[in-house]
Amino acid sequence: MAKYVVKRICYMLLTLFTVASITFFLMRSIPGDPLASMAKTLPEQTKENFYAKYGLDQPLYKQYFKYMEGLVHLDLGESILYAGRSVTSEIARTSPVSGMVGGTALIIGTFIGVCLGMVAALKKNRWPDYVVMFIAILGATIPVFVLASLMQYVFAVQLGWLPASGWGKPVHMVLPVIVLGFGSVATYARYIKSSMLDTLGQDYVLTARAKGLSERAVILKHVLRNSLLPAVTIFSSSIVGVFTGAFVTEKMFSIPGIGLYYVSSINNNDYTMVMGTTVFYAALFIIMQLVVDFVYMILDPRIRIASDR
């Protein structure tokens, strides 16, 4: 186990290094720089001082090694677009907002999706199955901005029950959570239904029923536990999607999350902010993949870590 964990950590560091390097050179390959528009109206000496402050006057390889040196010391640099703010502080300030909204939506959406998927599998080819699949198709096909606009029009404009946008009160989370959670409901309902239908035909399920176990015990102890493996696989990417994929929702509901700042940084060529958030996303994704491996072993005792031959 210790050997496996050390090996995975080494792979994680190598992956982070690769992601950071590729992102660095891709950002530098985009025409223009973050100071181009601002520098047009500045005196030449002031312009040179700005470029020197952020190291943009140095050769590309020197900029690269300087950034990697800071990354080793967990220093993500200073944002160019938001002068005086470190990238680390911006991530620390905005990511909890995205995590609060997206995490709530993911938990609620996953729970409802798993329950609906179970119903669809156990009531196959009957009206509950058709209703669940209809909901799943809607969730998979309706764009987020369309659903968000519809929710704002119905519940904020027509009924006046909820605010259309804003942040600061629990009530501001209701509509964004519904919009983000609807996609999770659709995804997990389809995965759980497909996985449960496959598991219900396995020999050990037939054996459990032959032993006289109640249908509830068979479903909860044998079928559902093994059917959750595909859901666990996509749950790791769903957690990362909470931070990376909610920028449309954050924009429409005026939520000051990390996704909104990430898109703004890309549009303004804020090198350090884009680099820092990309590394943050990559680290989060890699850590979640490691967690998934351990969850696999808990859910399915047949999965064991085999030593290299």
UniProtKB/TrEMBL annotation:
Transmembrane domains' residue ranges: 9-30, 97-119, 131-153, 173-192, 228-248, 279-299
Domain ABC transmembrane type-1: 95-296
Pfam families linked: BPD_transp_1 (PF00528), BPD_transp_1_N (PF19300)
Keyword Oxidoreductase: no
Keyword terms of this UniProt record: Cell membrane, Membrane, Transmembrane, Transmembrane helix, Transport
InterPro entries assigned to the protein according to its UniProt record, in alphabetical order: BPD_transp_1_N, MetI-like, MetI-like_sf
Location in or out of the cell: Cell membrane
Topology with respect to the bilayer: Multi-pass membrane protein
PROSITE patterns: ABC_TM1
GO term, biological process aspect, one: transmembrane transport
A single Gene Ontology CC term: plasma membrane
Tree of life domain: Bacteria
Metal-binding recorded as keyword: no
Family: Belongs to the binding-protein-dependent transport system permease family.
Name of this chain's protein: Oligopeptide transport system permease protein
Organism: Hespellia stercorisuis DSM 15480
